[in-house]
Amino acid sequence: AQRVTQPEKLLSVFKGAPVELKCNYSYSGSPELFWYVQYSRQRLQLLLRHISRESIKGFTADLNKGETSFHLKKPFAQEEDSAMYYCALFPAMNYGGSQGNLIFGKGTKLSVKP
Amino acid sequence: DTGVSQDPRHKITKRGQNVTFRCDPISEHNRLYWYRQTLGQGPEFLTYFQNEAQLEKSRLLSDRFSAERPKGSFSTLEIQRTEQGDSAMYLCASSPAPQGTDTQYFGPGTRLTVL
Q: How far apart, in whole angstroms, are the C-alpha atoms of residue A20 and residue A65?
């Protein structure tokens, strides 16, 4: 079954500390993986996707197929990083006609203390 | 604001009533998605459209739920004979191209409370 697991409901760190939000997935094919973020009173928005291999707001995430993980990392947390973070999987069986749904984890609330 | 919009933002209804939500996607986005989010959970897929065609429905979408996108622009999600278990945030998202891996842009959601 396709599944995304985020083991931590809440992660609390101090400003300037490193952050790692864990995400593990279950999928037999080659997944597309995403991190979405929801700041307080804002809508859900894309933070980054593994295919882009880019760093957004200092966050990076590496797909580890051996460990079926896509952990989100930032070396120095900022207070404005406090938000709800969702890892999501798109079961990309084939392009141009594949199923359209993202499979989300339950989310991790990141709290960065001053 | 040219983002995805949803109306209403909040809806309180009594059990057994019908409710309808509207979603306006970003202009010219081909794909439109509906998700449901309950407390402590991530968004769960309900259904999606490519233009006016409804291509997939989740098993979460019981026969009391129906969605339409008649002209390939806005979409409506109707819940008939609402139950307390339908209380949730209903999210709409759109993406620009047929390939499903394109970024999905989310609306603010409609929060439904069934009394």
A: 18
Q: What is the DSSP letter of A42?
A: S
CB-nearest to A96 from B31, B99, B109 is B99
Count other C-beta atoms under 10 Å from residue B60's C-beta.
12
Q: CA B111 to CA A85: how far, in whole Å?
A: 20
Q: Mention every residue, 6+ apart, whose C-beta is less than 8 A from residue B16.
A: B81, B82
Distance CA(A44)–CA(B93), nearest Å, equals 10
Closest chain B CA to residue A95: B99
Q: Per-residue pLDDT tens for A17-72?
A: 999 999 999 987 778 899 999 999 999 999 998 877 777 899 999 889 899 999 99
Neighboring chain B residues of A94 at a CB cutoff of 8 Å: none
Q: What is the distance between the alpha carbons of residues B91 and B109, in angstroms, rounded to a whole number?
A: 4
Q: Which of A51, A100, A104 sits opposite B42 (nearest CB)?
A: A104
